[in-house]
Amino acid sequence: MDELLNEFLTETNESLATLDTELVRFERDSSDTRILGNIFRLMHTIKGTCGFLGLPRLESVAHAGENVLGKFRDGDLPVTPDAVTLILRCIDHIRLLLVELGAAGREPEGDDGPLIGELNAMASGEPVAVPPADAAAAHAIAAPIFEEDGFPVAAELLAEVAEALGPQVAAQPVSPQRSQPQPAAELPRQVAEAARDNNAKEPDQAASSIRVNVDVIENLMTLISEIVLTRNQLMQIQRNLKSDAFKVPLQRLSHITSELQDGVTRMRMQPIGNAWAKLPRIVRDLCVESGKKIDLVQRGADTELDRQVLEMIKDPLTHMVRNSADHGVEDPVTRRDAGKPETGTILLEACHEGGHIFIRIADDGRGLDADRIRQKALANGLATEAEIAAMSEKQVLQFIFQPGFSTAEKVTSVSGRGVGMDVVRTNIERIGGAIEMDSRPGEGTTFLIKIPLTLAIVSALILEAGGERFALPQINVVELVRAGSRSGARIETIRDAAVLRLRERLLPLVSLRTVLELGPDEVDRDRFVLVMEVGAFKFGIIVDRVFDAEEIVVKPVAPILRGNPFYAGNTILGDGSVIMILDPGGLSALAGQAHSNNDGLQVAGSVAGRDESEASLLLFRAGGPELKAVMLDAILRIEEIDAGAIEQVGGRHVVQYRQKLMPLMMVNGDQRLVETGRQPLLVFCDNGQPLGLVVDEVVDIVQNHISLELAPRQDGLLGSAIVAGKATDLVDIRHYIEYGRDNWIRDEERPRLAAGGRHG
Amino acid sequence: MVGVSNGQQRGIAGAGPEGADIQHVFATFHVAGQLFGVPVTRVQDILTPNVIARVPLGPAEVRGLINQRGRIVTVIDMHVRLALACAESGRGVCVTVDSDGELYTLLVDSVGDVVDLPGSAREAPPPTLDPSWADLSDGVFRMGDELLVALDVTRLLDIRRKN
Amino acid sequence: MADRTCLVVDDSAPIRRVVSGMFLDLGYAVAEAPTGKDALDYCRAGQPDIVMLDWNMPVMDGIGCLTALRSMPLPRQPVVVMCTTESQIARIQQALSAGADEYIIKPFGRDVLVDKLEQLGMA
């Protein structure tokens, strides 16, 4: 396409996006002449430019719009919602013409008479019946900040990068002249550019930025990725060399590479406000259509994030705001009856914190309807009645993230256009982010999104499992634990689920060998556990070895390999070898499942809130066929001891355990110790004193909803839990600890225990 | 590279009577004793693989990934893809082909000549031809006393469809 | 080496490009500025011979820029052509009394521009 035309399309689309936003602001406060001045100027510039480029249809539509705006400005025409809607329709119409112009390269044939007639009638003060603005059209093409070829980049950044890369690249970003540029012509241009740089404080974006084709930046990014790889290779060679000859220049190269990388990364940054630009218009149209009153409050719109990331979250954000406006915020009457202000608020907030961007979308609406979600989940076969009954409110709400789930009762023209929250979550997790949700009936719903700052180059740990090396993005790794066969932390296996006790918490584990089918786990050797945090969910990954951290360039896997949730991409390491990059999100989902899904229980999402009525439970049998449960947090270890090692002291059972004498307790009177073989025990700790609870069989670990009973039916019971549709007794460990203390320690006196300790 | 335009290349699929005199230029290779050919225009590179990085849980046809001059290239094990006997212990040769800008490399036993065959050398597939190849094949050509099975690269790489 | 330099001031990049193209064809060296404020900064350092000044611009509009320019102690004041879509006499009058040498109605073609430059003795 003609470059001039391209430039025009880009600029005009930007102007239209601003017009949308400014008009909505102006409608709220029609006394603000500054906003109106800006609106008028934007429309005027569109008209003027169309005139120059010989685009008569666009020019006449813009002219008619400008006329109405002129009447607003001169106070000849009152600013009514109808008049604003008409202007918005005018903007939408210009947009449609631009789309056709962009596709065909010239203005399409057609008649704009009716719209121009309406605008002229409005300008002359005649009453006009105004149909609503075509919201769908506006949303489909509004503010195409990413569809366009270029976007503004701070000139100083470009200069920085251009300097580093040499003249041929430096020449590219400056828009080429249509005619043959003469050397003398370039000179004042550069001076003008330099003059602009001095205006860094100038609020006008155009003054301190120039437009660069996206491809140029993507290309730069690729080149820099290659430099990073080459640097890594050189550093690898240097490490293997005896000589230090390359050390200094290599350090310098390394330093420059990092700066270059940083510079281009910053160049790719765009304010998140770009992704919010069309939201005021969407909310406004929805208000007009539904009669609601909503304030859209934006905070931190200047928070910058990577263009690619912005592109990925733009649609999810739009969807969530639309949802909030459509289903969250109530109509004025309902709000008034509920004792709330008639005007609802949707808050959009972005901020920067430690390598992450946090985005909050909060409304003060009615909150999610847990009952309806339950019904819907049941109707859609997402869970059985018993499973749902066992779930906490918070768990139930997480169903909205399940594929195909939507609580919308009716589809309005604004909402219900496509994506559901499952897609939102998938999109966000795909870029290494996480989404959490909190909703309170009558008070509103809040979504919190956490996303990494940039995607292209990440710091990763290189690790090994089953003889294969993998890269794991460090962003989710919170700790590295050595799990030795003799020393260090111990990996325990309960049925098929591995867990690690870490600072009095049991951490669910996944073994990379098992997950990727790289052979059986080598239990006898030293292994490592990478403690991961994905969203609010903590889990561990068992690997064989961990090497250095390395800066890696994330490259997408070939289409043939896509669809595997455990890989986020692949890369070439410094030594030239190719390795797969693991996806912490995919592994976390698996870890969540392994520990909650064994009985078909669905915990919707790895970031499912774990409220006080939900816990990890260890299921066991003792003194009867029915399942019993105990809070996993309370257990120190699960042991199997040789039946022969159990001694009788004063009519009670004890066993030597870790240099101490450990009393054993039965869950109830029906229980018997095994006579031969191994006796399973649950080991608890009371102020450093181990106590063993004798069980017949350890069955499973589940993540489950529990209900605590105020007046337990029986001593030693804390309450009950519904596990796979069956009520299961929840054993109160405190009871046994106290029982043990009262009946054992007091009776037998401490010196005995101490003596036992010496023997051990 | 031999000068065959894409337009002529498309002629292969619809080799009717008027396409009979079109020349077909193939890069040839052997897999488990059978001669195959792919249009030479699709071939980017031929190399001996150094280290192939495995992709655990990947499709069986994917032997792994290699670093081909700074680009990550997916290695397709032609023995598996063509349901032939397992690869010999030798390392084999990689024939790198382009598919929608993505590079794949076909791991074969050995690479033969680039051959130039007239449309008239095209034959009806013999009944002994493995039926599973029919879908991947663009025709069978007589080459002296050997039969060359021409492969359609796009369908060859469409592993998901097969599965 | 071009004899004369023209500064094209307009907030629309396509318009700047079209007008710049016309001046380049006429053998001018060309500089561009997107706002009145940038134009002033340029005039301080760049000494243009002629300024094509748009009326409606953000940050500082054409009249504001013209007024400020004329009050600047420059060794040589440039010729200023006010570019406007406003054909009302009042507007043209306002521009001329603020110190514009000429006005031109947008959109204009090369012929009209050459006419105006001839009148100004700058063709």
What is the topology?
The complex is a heterotrimer of chains A (760), B (163) and C (123).
Chain A: H1 3-28, H2 33-53, H3 56-73, H4 81-104, H5 113-123, H6 135-141, E1 150-154, H7 155-165, H8 167-171, H9 183-197, H10 205-208, E2 209-213, H11 214-240, H12 247-267, E3 269-271, H13 273-276, H14 279-290, E4 294-299, E5 304-306, H15 307-328, H16 332-337, E6 344-353, E7 356-363, H17 370-379, H18 385-389, H19 393-397, H20 421-430, E8 434-440, E9 444-452, E10 457-465, E11 468-473, E12 477-483, E13 491-494, E14 497-502, E15 505-511, H21 512-515, E16 527-534, E17 537-543, E18 545-553, E19 567-572, E20 578-582, H22 584-594, E21 614-621, E22 628-631, E23 637-642, E24 647-649, E25 652-657, E26 660-666, E27 678-686, E28 689-694, E29 697-708, E30 717-723, E31 726-731, H23 733-748, H24 750-759
Helix pairs in contact in A: 1-2, 1-4, 1-14, 2-3, 3-4, 3-5, 4-5, 7-12, 11-12, 14-15, 15-20
Chain B: H1 6-10, E1 23-31, E2 34-39, E3 43-47, E4 62-68, E5 71-77, H2 78-81, E6 93-99, E7 102-108, E8 110-118, E9 122-123, H3 131-134, E10 137-143, E11 146-151, H4 153-157, H5 159-162
Parallel strand pairs in B: 2-11, 5-7
Antiparallel strand pairs in B: 1-2, 1-8, 3-6, 4-5, 6-7, 9-10, 10-11
Chain C: E1 5-9, H1 13-25, E2 29-33, H2 36-46, E3 50-54, H3 62-70, E4 79-84, H4 89-97, E5 102-105, H5 110-119
Parallel strand pairs in C: 1-2, 1-3, 3-4, 4-5
Helix pairs in contact in C: 2-3
